[in-house]
Amino acid sequence: MRTSRTSTTFPPPVMEARRWLDGVDFPPERPLINVSQAAPVEPPHPDLRQAMADAVLQDDSAHLYGPVLGNDDLRAELAARTSRIYEGSVTPAQICITSGCNQAFAAAIAALCGEGDEVIVPVPWYFNHKMWLDMAGATAVPLTCTADMTPDPQAAAALITPRTRAIVLITPNNPTGAEYPDSLVTAFYDLARAHGIKLLVDETYRDFHSRSDAPHSLFSLPDWDETLIHLYSFSKAYRLTGHRMGAMAASPALMAQIEKFLDTVAICPAQVGQHAALWGMQNLDQWLAGERDEILRRRAAIQTEMPRLEAKGWSLLGLGGYFAYLRHPFAMSSAQLAPLLVREFGVLCLPGTMFYPDDATAGASELRIAFANLDVPGLSALFDRLQTVDLALR
Description:
With 394 residues, the chain is α/β, with parallel strands linked by helices. 40% of the residues lie in helices and 15% in strands. The chain has helices at residues 13-18, 46-58, 72-86, 101-112, 127-136, 153-157, 182-195, 235-238, 252-265, 271-283, 285-310, 334-345, 376-387, and strands at residues 33-34, 95-98, 118-123, 139-144, 164-170, 198-202, 228-233, 246-249, 315-320, 323-327, 347-348, 350-351, 366-370. The strands form three sheets. A seven-stranded mixed beta sheet has the order 2-8-7-6-5-3-4, with helices on both faces. Helix 2 packs across helix 10, helix 3 (72-86) runs parallel beside helix 10 (271-283) and helix 4 (101-112) packs across helix 9 (252-265). The longest helix is centred in the last third of the chain and has 26 residues, at 285-310.
């Protein structure tokens, strides 16, 4: 009996990690510190919640199907905002709204790839990207990152074959937190353009970038949409994770293919979430700047705390967005260490093995810390616990 591609795809890692909590008690003096998932747990700004309630009560269209590619006013607002942030030129026809950024990635792959086509993905990779490529019948070609957790365009060039359809970049990166400089992103753009393939740039965590200027210059390039597919998420910026609001920027020609996928899968993005995303962009810039400042404070706190772990053989491999990516010093694989940290130290994080191909060894010494839900005192408590881990060393 033949098996489906979905049945041969590995289980969702975050769900697997949550099962490690089963049967474990966390006493009041040592509550669970959960740094496994990169999502805000607080609700949206009160004024945004009121705007959403007003839409539900007063706008009949909030309860009806809308345009498959998203509401016109939201697409126009995001196009204008993207043009402003990147000092480029983006039109509403180059924008679509999706049910979360994961769906934007899935739609892009569905439009680009046939059975057995290849997509180059830097490792450690975002596991949901790998999962979708597996389920779509496309091949994820791993591109090993350098010591500073950045991918090498020359190494990527050596992986391109006649079946290659795209290269994927995430910046700030999930899982490593690495922020790719404009020169690196542009080098990958030039590589993709030269080979007639697409560059997918996922900037889910753009609003928490440590740079205050434009993260890259791709939108200012002529005919950028012939090569670039840009992915974005409203979920982190406006705390809308439960409303599943993502977006894509690409060519109008590709949008015609994207529309087929979105119409089949969801028909249209959720209306209330679209109202929220639009209202957030129009009214919450100052609040969002404060959210970014807080994330940067937490990032700085990790840099301050790291010497405590470095003295015990740990190292910080990447830091940015919502993530700190660590190398641990223990002989035990992170696949065994992560569940042990839950049971013995009350810390839930993800092992590096969840971000690599099965035959890779690097992930065994790595852990991902998603720190967006810990304030500065909470981060200090996390480092207190990690500092006490005493196991056989490599």
